[in-house]
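WARN retry 2 of 3 for item q-0093 after timeout on previous attempt; input resubmitted unchanged.
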Amino acid sequence: MDTIAPGEHSVLDFTVGVPDNTMARALADDAATIATEIQRVVVTSPQTIQLSILGLLAEGHILLEDVPGVGKTLLGKTLSGAIACDFKRIQFTPDLLPTDITGTTVFDMKSSTFNFVAGPIFSNIVLADEINRTGPRTQAALLEAMAEHQVSIEGDVMKLPSPFMVIATQNLSESHGTFPLPDSQKDRFMISMGMGLPTPEQEVEILARSQHGMPEASPVITGDRIVEMRELVKRIEVDATIRQYIVKLAGQTRSNSSVLHGLSPRGAAALQRAAQAWAAMDGRSFVEPQDVSEIAVFVVAHRLMMQPASSLSAQDVVRTAIEETQVPA
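OK item q-0093 returned
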């Protein structure tokens, strides 16, 4: 596949209001191009690939949680490889320091001045590999960056580049030598999902592709175009009935006896933005109820705090809320 040159991207006429159908279809076509390039490298379900692109277009961060060896890191690297932008990978270890992520000030003896050396967080896409293998103090170094797209270092606030996105991989909490992510940090991830084990047919394909070395993704879209697509997503129409539907879903999670803390207003806003991106990826300029219901488990479940004695999973609670919530007329 030919590689695009950085800076080559389609130019859209941005106006105030809902994007027209042509602009929505163009966004859907570009999202499909990214998906095709990822599928060329990663053997996984189409849903997993679509959800990873959803996080990118909705200005969200992605948490990939599963057992080792199922392709979490490969998916993160491949998504970033399909975009012509800066990419950094951080391998999280128990001895990793916050300054290893954000950067630090170094004294230059020749000029007798202190110079800031930027850390890997100053990239468009950051892969935080095995994020739960480091302690809470270092994990917290990502919080401001993920929430505000900026970092505070020695009293100075520094903006991160645009687009910006964190893709984190996490081994299951039962794995040896891991630190569970705090709820406040989980809430900063728009999408949380597992890869799952491949089917026998998929595993045969993985072996075939890896026989002579795994292929790598080539850039098929620019960072500038991603910024344009994100702006389009913000303008996808959300009818009042859709907003009421989301609020009712949130209320269902809060009233469930198995849940200690249900979906927060911030989580509801994330669900709305994700639904806008899901609709745009389908080539539509408006959100439908099915856009909300199809992605709710991946956006909501990891934000719920369950009762310790609950026999239900957070995913079960979200599915029940979807079944019991009627779309307002």
